[in-house]
């Protein structure tokens, strides 16, 4: 079986081909920022990105004889985790989503290429996977509901990989999975369902290289009404140009870590603060699992950092076993889900556009 995996990022498009579970080719490129700047919205990049992919495959002499095309999932209606066939409703919702993000292009491009190949197109575990327990939805402010937006693809794939390594099924374990990247998400996985996780898109949870994390609410409200900033400027303070990037002018963790190891300030203190908020969020998810946790898994790009991993582990390893599985693993995760769908190991679900997010009882009357 031959799988094409497509992962559009903010400034890059990653491509990979897998045959019978093994990667046989990987390609893609970083796009010219001046070219991308011409597009008003990321969804307008559709033709540009698709033409790049088709030309890249043609230049490499790769035959368009795929058994499936797997695209990175976008910001759809909240849905349960799993593999979804791309359908017209999904494409419509991606074209009209309230969240403008380049990941919305994944399914649309995958479907067009799949049609040319005569094969199915899938997405798997998009960032809007929502398996919250009801009490996790309450924010404390009527009219504001906590949303489940996180690194679901990597979190779920790493959890399954770990379960398989110890001869168990993902659905048999309770795990805390910590994705450490430009954004950080900490999820409580209870028997195959992520019952609570911080919103890693909008800045909730730990401080990260590019996210503010949870900030003092009254101070934020005062800042918003100070008249000094526009709505978009405030949003950038929370995600994008936030977190370590806001303090240091860079989100490059290699550089930041090097200076922290050397003891340079404010690098050392800021990295310590980030690690501390990650550890606190892990503690919160330990409570969400009622202390019944089989392992804490550290993953994502920052999990390659011995410095950060050691600092985080020191603060949490008394809770339960800590496992380090570094890397984003997005392309491999996409391929694994596609193979699972083709072999029948994983069911292929239908996207309906109906939110799976459970309503809080009595809120309509409040």
Automatic annotation (TrEMBL):
According to the UniProt entry, its GO molecular function terms are: acetate kinase activity; ATP binding; butyrate kinase activity
**Leading EC class:** transferase
Q: Which reaction does it catalyse?
A: butanoate + ATP = butanoyl phosphate + ADP
> GO cellular component annotations, sorted alphabetically?
cytoplasm
Q: Which UniProt keywords apply?
A: ATP-binding, Cytoplasm, Kinase, Nucleotide-binding, Transferase
Statement: the UniProt record of this protein carries the keyword Aminoacyl-tRNA synthetase: no
One biological process term in Gene Ontology: acetate metabolic process
Superkingdom classification of source? Bacteria
Under which EC number(s) is this enzyme classified? 2.7.2.7
Quote the subcellular location field of this record. Answer: Cytoplasm
Look up keyword Transferase and say if it applies: yes
The record's comment on protein family reads: Belongs to the acetokinase family.
PANTHER family on file: ACETATE KINASE (PTHR21060), BUTYRATE KINASE 2-RELATED (PTHR21060:SF3)
Return the protein name: Probable butyrate kinase
* Gene behind the chain: buk
């Amino acid at each position: 079986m031959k799988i094409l995996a497509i992962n559009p990022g903010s400034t890059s498009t990653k491509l990979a081909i897998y045959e019978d579970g093994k990667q046989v080719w990987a390609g893609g490129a970083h796009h010219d920022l001046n070219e991308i700047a011409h597009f008003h919205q990321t969804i307008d990049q559709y033709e540009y990105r698709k033409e790049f992919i088709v030309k890249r495959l043609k230049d490499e002499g790769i035959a368009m004889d795929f058994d499936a095309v797997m695209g990175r999932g976008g910001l759809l209606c909240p849905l349960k985790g799993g593999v979804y066939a791309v359908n017209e409703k999904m494409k419509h919702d991606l074209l009209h989503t309230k969240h403008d993000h380049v990941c919305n292009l994944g399914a649309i491009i995958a479907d067009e290429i799949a049609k040319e190949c005569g094969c199915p197109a899938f997405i798997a575990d998009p960032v809007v996977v929502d398996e919250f327990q009801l009490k996790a939805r309450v924010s404390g402010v009527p009219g504001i509901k906590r949303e489940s937006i996180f690194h679901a693809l990597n979190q779920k794939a790493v959890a399954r990989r770990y379960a398989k390594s110890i001869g168990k099924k993902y659905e048999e374990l309770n795990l805390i999975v910590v994705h450490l990247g430009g954004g950080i998400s900490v999820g409580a996985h209870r028997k195959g369902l992520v019952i609570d996780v911080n919103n890693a898109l909008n800045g909730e949870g730990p401080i990260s290289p590019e996210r503010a994390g949870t900030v003092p609410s009254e101070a934020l409200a005062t800042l918003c009404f100070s008249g000094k900033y526009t709505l978009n400027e405030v949003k950038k303070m929370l995600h994008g140009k936030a977190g370590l990037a806001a303090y240091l002018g860079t989100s490059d963790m290699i550089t930041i870590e090097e200076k922290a190891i050397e003891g340079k300030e404010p690098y050392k203190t800021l990295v310590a603060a980030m690690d501390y908020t990650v550890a606190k969020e892990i503690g919160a998810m330990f409570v969400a699992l009622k202390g019944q946790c089989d392992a804490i898994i550290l993953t994502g790009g920052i999990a390659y950092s011995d410095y950060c991993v050691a600092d985080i582990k020191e603060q949490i390893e008394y809770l339960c076993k800590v496992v380090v599985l570094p890397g984003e693993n997005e392309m491999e995760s996409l391929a694994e889900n596609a193979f699972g769908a083709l072999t029948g190991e994983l069911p292929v679900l239908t996207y309906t556009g109906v939110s799976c997010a459970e309503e809080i009882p009595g809120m309509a009357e409040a």
